[in-house]
Amino acid sequence: MQWKLTDDRPIWTQLTEQLTERIVSGIYPLGSRMPSVRELAAEAGVNPNTMQRALAQLEADGLVSTNRTAGRTVTEDSTSVEQVRQNLAEDKMELYVTGMATLGYTETEAANMLLNRRRGNE
Question: What pTM did the predictor assign?
Fold first, then answer.
């Protein structure tokens, strides 16, 4: 998964979002050890302090925990990870529905377009 960073929002916020997506999608499985701050910073091409701030936010959100000797690990709480995943999905659906409404589509029309697109890919 490639890092996608833009200049329109704080980098640490974007890193937090992308790390969260990696956790909820299973790229970083429950209970797994996270790469080090320096490894992640080098991979993303950012300052380690910026990555540290993103990881601190993940810890505050309960998605990772820090063990001084073992580094950071992804939570094993599947319920909280699934709740975050559901919230992210709802946010993405809202963006889609709002964007389609801007183009003049109703929610039903937007949903049907998704269903038809899905059927076309099968």
Answer: 0.84
